[in-house]
Amino acid sequence: MDDVQLDGMLHVAFLRSEHAHARLRGVDVAAARRRPGVVAVYAADDLGDYWQPGPLLVPPPPIPGLVFHACTQVPLVKDKARHVGEPIAMVVAESRYVAEDAVADIVVDVAPLQAVVDLEAALERGAPLVHEHLSSNLAAHVVQEKGDYNAAKATAHRVVQRRFHYDRGISAAIENRAVAARWDARAEELTVWDTTQAPIPIRNGLARMLGLLESQVRVIAPFVGGGFGPKIMMFYPEEVLVPWAAMRLGRPVKWTEDRQENFTATTQERGQVHDAELAVTRDGKILGVKDVFLHDSGAYDSYGLTVPINSQCTLLGPYDVPNYYTEFTAVFTNKTLVTPVRGAGRQHGVFVMERLLDFAARELGIDRLEIRRRNYLAPEAFPFNNEIIFQDSAPLVYDSGDYAPALAQAAQMIGYEQFVREEQPRLRVAGRHVGIGIVSYIEGTGIGPYEGARVTIEPSGEVRVATGVGTQGQGHFTSFAQIVAEVLGVPMERIHVVTGDTREFNWGTGTFASRGAVVAGTACHAAAALVRDKIFAVASRVLQVPQERLELVGGRMMVKDATDGGIELGALAARANPLRGAVRPGTEPGLEATAYYGPDRGSTASGVHAMIVEVDPETAMVEIRRYVVVHDCGRLINPMLVEGQIHGGVAHGIGNAFYEQLVYDDGGQLQNASFMDYLLPTATDVPRVEVAHRETASPLNPIGLKGVGEAGCIPTGAAFAQAVEDALADYGLEITEIPLSPDKLFDLLKKTRPKKRNVVVIDGSFVFQGSREAVYALLQDPEVLGKSLPGAMHLGRTGDGRYDGLMRVGIGPVTAAEFSVSVTLHDQKPPAGYGMIVEGKGGFGFVRGTAQVALADHGDGTEMTYRAEVQVGGTIAGVGQRLLDSVAKRMTRQGLEALNTALAARL
Amino acid sequence: MEPRLLLSDFLRQDLGLTGTHVGCEHGVCGACTVLLDGEAVRSCLILAVQADGHEVATVEGLGSVEDLHPLQAAFRQAHALQCGFCTPGILMTLVPFLDEHPNPAESEIREALSGNLCRCTGYQNIVDAVKLSTPVPAGW
Ligand code: FES
Ligand code: FES
After folding, report:
1. Greatest CA separation for chain A
2. Residue A293: strand pairing partners
3. Domains of chain B: which residue ranges?
4. Residues near A530 by Cβ (< 8 Å), separated by ≥ 6?
5. How far is the CA of B122 from the centre of ligand 1 (A)?
6. B35 vs A3, A256, A778, B25, B110, CA distance in Å?
7. pTM of the model
8. What are phi and psi of B115, to 5 degrees?
9. How far is CA A456 from CA A442, A503, A524, A529, in A?
10. B104 C-beta closer than 6 A to ligand 1
């Protein structure tokens, strides 16, 4: 957008609040105005009546009992600054350099106030108020309910309960925002170039604010360098001010955001805290979910409740949840506004639900895949009504889906079974920490209200397609051209698509909610179909042949079975627009049609993400070794574009999961407002993504489309958490927080890791004379184990995979240390291996440790590889590491030989 | 010319060569990469006066719409750009890299790209485009 350079153009820089919360007592712009090259400086009072709070963009949906306080942003701070980066004064100058110099000349008189930063503290009595006309910082409160959660909980075998945190990041489109405007006094026309995702609503709003006709304003959203959500927000103060200044000054004016401004002035997302619980039966069937969460609205809530409602709706996922209680409180804070960022609240819901399922699976001893399979909605359940209201105000009804095969396909692609049965045990024995994560999600996409398109065949035979959505790299040009080409049978090269210019098409809303291809694409399809009808009607008249005998071949109307003749579409277009003669009553001139598409409700895309990670517990670095996506966005227009969207989404999701976090201090100051401190994933951080498509067509539109724009980043955090946890299974840590940075993971590891002192490591391999099955069975038999383990007096099985007993060992001066021991087996993968947790306590101290055992075929016999880390404490630890090591080795060798003898005796 | 004028601003505003993009102005995103005497540099970290007497090559010199540079053609074929904002900087980073590594391994390509941020593509198709443009495709 910054490429727009016009003669006589002026440049803008803003003075922005350095304080998160401060009373503004005065702004002195006199020195700035005097600086050579400065054309104008405006503070709030200079705007007169033009100073108005912005519109409420998305009114809350009709949910009974809903509380919502609308507080929308202002063009320039008048009385109080509510977040760092809020604009206070605007300088217009001959160059950006001079404008920035002049910003430094402005003197502001402010009284800092205590900032509201933490969500819970914000709601406490006596907390400072972001908006003083309200009695608290509560922005909204919403409860939605389906069935009766409490009744379901009463019958549950188990209730899994956790607290989850999700924190903020930026959208980080590589092109920052920008606005330029030119007022043509002679034509009385205002042209605005804007990086917006919603050019038409911007035009309509600007016309109203500036007292112009809508036809006097043209808004162009040129090829925008990435959107990802925040560019749908309106009206940013700069969007209100730049056109106004251009009209007042009679010269073109441009403002281009710099990256530092972007960190505080462009909207953000993701701060939520969830207290959630999942009630399940003994076999892992979901009885109900309860989720109560806080949502960070930032300083103003102009975008309504889209984000938190997405969170509460997306939580349900592809699962049959008969009872659901969901409640959220949106909170005003002294931070940048929150509006949708790719995913738009959906990832929070997915994270909470998938994590709850993981914990439930672990506690119930059910495989992670199995618990999901048991709860998927069946393919015949659609349309499925979840009985709550979605962000588009329509009931949350899933149109179609087929979930279990997607899971199976992802598991197969990533080699789930093989990984958990063989590879992981083998690598664990080698001391490596590898893990796998696999999660499901759904995404409500393609919502209304509507989009439109116009398709025109020009006399040259070229086809023009115009639609109102803006484009930021999604490939709309290609996908819309493809749709139209298919309907009209015209080669792609002859189709010219225009998007995001209100002069070309002026009805529509914008690019958001993964809806461009679905809604505008369907409108293109409908318009092309109407043109096709016209082509046949006109051709039939011109060629004097009934329509049934006509066919469209390669941009030419042909009479069936005739080898030559026919007529080019361009020539038909000319015939349809005669200079003389009459256009018949009931027909229209030309080969042109406009159509609209407005779905009552969105279509539900779905998918499964799986990844394999390796974690280095020393450095807490995570390497993603494989990433698999099985995605179902209905019928595919263009697989390459869909894959591109997924690749980018996954990269964004990985950033959100592990690298990117906006860190605010207690004063509401952003601590990492640069790309040096806020880390975006680079080419070495993002793995190759293996994508497979499934096509469960949507019944809601003729092509069967569902959206895809946001899908890639929605389940990434949940998959990442599961995989990392799995890799660090021996640490027993739980991940309930995203983003998880290397240092946060490091802290978690420190908390859970056994101290390394007095740790005995026992590793090695041993060949048994017997099959894997026989060795595996032997290793499970308490009697054999009891006899073979030196000093084990007796050992008994006290539960599935659990053994308790008594053991006596002599170590140096401690001749007969007696321990009560318990051994728990986990990750049992017969006959490939298992993990073991050993705990022993006695008067002389304790032992505690983990072990991994893997079995592999070795000629006729079986090679067992083992590795144990046992921590020793108390008196026995005093004997010193050297002695501990040698005793451990001796005991191991004796034990294994005894086992081999026992095996031989059995066979 | 004002001594404080950045090379990136000079190229874009004074010369109207808007192919060089600006994404951060603090040397991290790589969108502003140009060649200074054949070496990839960040034009947002250099003053225009510092480039005096040196040869500066921007993406405009790489190829034209009618006559794409082979790397540009590969980018188009592999769908290696979505919004395209990062692309000029990435191309200008890769051109000297490929001169020195005519047949790079994927890890080398990723390493070479790691100083350029792209938010849209997840880098995968960029890597593939590079492979596509190298004379002997490596690892395909
Ligand atoms: S603009 Fe120069 S590195 Fe980002
Ligand atoms: S293609 Fe958009 S930033 Fe790279």
Report:
1. 117
2. A274, A328
3. 7-133
4. A455, A593, A595
5. 19
6. 21, 25, 68, 17, 20
7. 0.84
8. -95, 10
9. 37, 15, 11, 12
10. no
Confidence of residue A294 (pLDDT cuts 50, 70, 90): very high
Give tens-digit pLDDT for A569-596: 999 998 888 777 666 777 788 899 999 9
Task: Tell me the β-bridge partners of A374.
Answer: none
CB atoms closer than 10 angstroms to residue A95: 17
Ligand nearest to the CA of A225: 2
- Alpha helices (H) in B1-140, listed in sequence order: 7-9, 70-77, 87-100, 106-113, 124-133
**Quick one: residue B26, left, alpha or beta (phi over 0 = left, psi -120 to 50 = alpha)?**
alpha
Å between B3 CA and nearest CA of chain A: 12
Measure the CA–CA gap between A24 and A80, rounded to whole angstroms: 5
B57 lines ligand 1 (CB under 6 A): no
Whole-number average pLDDT of chain A: 90
Ligand 2 centre to CA of A158 (Å) is: 47
With a 6 A CB cut-off, is A174 part of the ligand 2 pocket?
A: yes
Bridge partners (DSSP) listed for residue A496 = A464
Q: Which of B26, B82, B111 sits opposite A475 (nearest CB)?
A: B82
Flag if B83 and A688 touch (Cβ within 8 Å).
Answer: no
> Ligand 2 within 6 A of B79 CB?
no
Peptide bond into A546 cis (omega under 30): no
Give yes or no for a contact between A786 and A792, defined as CB atoms under 8 angstroms apart.
yes
Tokens at A698, concatenated: 């949507």
Strand, coil or helix: A875: helix
Judge whether residue A787 has pLDDT over 80. no
Kindly tell me the sign of the dihedral angle through the C-alpha atoms of B131, B86, A658, A649.
negative
DSSP secondary-structure letter at A730?
G
Chain A residues with at least one Cβ partner in B under 8 Å: 2-3, 5, 96-97, 171-176, 223-226, 228, 258-259, 472-475, 640-641, 643-644, 646-652, 674-676, 680, 682-684, 686, 688-689, 712
Residue A899, pLDDT score: 83
pLDDT digits (tens, 9 = 90+) for B81-130: 999 999 999 999 999 999 999 999 999 999 999 999 999 999 999 999 99
Mean pLDDT, residues A53-71 taken together? 93
The CA-CA-CA angle for residues A477, A482, A483, to 5°, reads: 105
- Which residues contact residue A218 at a Cβ distance below 8 angstroms, ignoring those fewer than 6 apart? A189, A190, A191, A192, A203, A501, A502, A503
pLDDT band for position A828 (cuts 50, 70, 90): confident
Nearest Cβ partner for A174 among B9, B114, B119: B119
Choice among A19-28, A441-450, A760-769, A839-848 with the minimum mean pLDDT: A839-848
Query: Would you state the torsion angle of the CA atoms of residues A353, A359, A360, A362, taken in this order, to the nearest 10 degrees?
Result: 150
For ligand 1, whether the C-beta of B40 sits within 6 Å is no
Share of residues in chain A with pLDDT > 90 (%): 61
User: Does B82 contact ligand 2 (Cβ within 6 A)?
Assistant: yes
Answer for the pair A231, A196: CB distance below 8 angstroms, yes or no: yes
CB atoms within 10 A of CB A110: 18
Which of B14, B119, B131, B132 to mutate: most A Cβ within 10 Å? Answer: B119
Q: Residue A604 has what pLDDT?
A: 92
Chain A residues with CB inside 8 Å of B2's CB?
97
Q: B7-133 has which CATH code?
A: 1.10.150.120
* Nearest by Cα to A398 from A352, A449, A348, A444: A444
Q: Tell me how far the alpha carbon of residue A624 is from its chain's centroid.
A: 18
Number of helices (H) and strands (E), helices first, in chain B?
Answer: 5, 3
Q: Which residue's entry shows tokens 């001749």?
A: A815
User: What are the helix (H) ranges across A507-566?
Assistant: 521-543
